[in-house]
Amino acid sequence: MGSIPSSFSALKSLHYLDLSRNNFSGQIPKYFQNLTLLQYLNLSFNKFEGEVPNEGVFGNANAVSVVGNQHLCGGIQKLGLSPCKVQGLKKNKRSHNLKIMIPIVSCSILLVMSLFLIIFTWARRSKRKASSMLQTQEPFPKISYAELSQATNDFSSTNLIGEGSFGSVYKGIMGENGMLVAVKVLNLKQKGASKSFVAECEAMRNIRHRNLIKVLTVCSSIDFKGVDFKAIVYEFMQNGNLDEWLHSNEVQVGVQSFSFIERLNIVIEVAHAIEYLHYHCQPAIVHGDLKPSNILLDHEMVAHVGDFGLARFLISSKKTSSLGIIGTIGYVAPEYGMGGEASMAGDVFSFGILLLEMITGKRPIDAIFKDGLNLHHFAKLALPERVMDIVDPSLLQELRSTDENVGDARRTRRERRVSIKEILITFARIGVICSMDSPHDRMEMKDVVAELCIIRDKFLGDHS
């Protein structure tokens, strides 16, 4: 009851605000249009009256909701409100005052013209720069807690398909067409969960790539108990995550084999996604938590990189938009442990560990890695001659079987075996270089993509 407290004007970092159905009255505070980071404002079903501002968040009809306030007027045209009569009188009064002031200040205009031109030029350049850095995209459509609860059968444990650092993921069915979705519910009691939600929404708002998970909608509301609730809804991936396929013997029995060409295609698709984030987004984005469980596979086994809760915008080649990040043990770059900022090189390190896990079938925290030995050194010590000794046994069996059945009369069996070994050596060497301790010694992702594509072409050429 009453007006919105003026203290809200101090929330400069506010992204989402839902004040619907709170019985607020009076005029809508104009300071909301000065909160530059505010992306969504819900003022619906209150008792506000008077003129609706038309700048800032109010300039986007999809970012603000004022329905259910019968005495509001003005605002941008897309809100569909009637014009304010008082606003018209004020406008006429301002025009009259302006006509009086023009003769008075005409001489001053000549003196400040040069300064005006400088400011105008600077403003245009700044606007172009801002436009190139953050593409203007519509915010995600909103969905209610009740709709998500219904879609997931009240977030039933039978629909639980995954758990992470900041929340749980549920399988859901939405809409009249019964679309399958994955609903990530944030555990807001966990420190950093709210920041993770904002980071993921901000990162995913402006990026589009076939190998990145697609966000369908978001929910920032309260549950039936009046507790804050935040969730992100993604497209559902029928084949689960990469971790389940790499270590199927740990979680399921009888799963179909995971072939070398499938693994190779997946790492290339992941590399393409990270290359896109690093070199084709403005500003560039650092994922920050690349690991098998964050790589989802659709019905055609196409990889989609997900979970951008630790993503950071790269402002320069050395600094990100916020303080450093914490990744997952085994995949996090060593410089992060010493307080280093998130960087492209950190993503490359995580990708290198992922690549070595793909070829060896061993997690970076496997029990064999102790006394200073880790997955990087394990692979490095085997190169080049003993590379076959570290290959995932199920993968090695498939490659040998393929090699023996290749009907290529132009080459001897010995020559084909050498070809397979060379391919595996190159594959493992890329993983080793990408996971070097020093960021300066690692490859760049655009070079990784090129090298992996060469490996695939060579493998398909030798075994087609």
From TrEMBL:
Highest taxon in the source lineage: Eukaryota
An annotated GO cellular component: plasma membrane
Alphabetized UniProt keyword annotations: ATP-binding, Cell membrane, Glycoprotein, Kinase, Leucine-rich repeat, Membrane, Nucleotide-binding, Phosphoprotein, Receptor, Repeat, Serine/threonine-protein kinase, Signal, Transferase, Transmembrane, Transmembrane helix
Enzyme Commission designation: 2.7.11.1
Annotated transmembrane regions: 100-123
GO molecular function per UniProt: ATP binding; protein serine/threonine kinase activity
Signal peptide coordinates: none
Subcellular location: Cell membrane
Family from the record: Belongs to the protein kinase superfamily.
UniProt name for this protein: non-specific serine/threonine protein kinase
Protein source organism: Rubroshorea leprosula
Lineage: Eukaryota, Viridiplantae, Streptophyta, Embryophyta, Tracheophyta
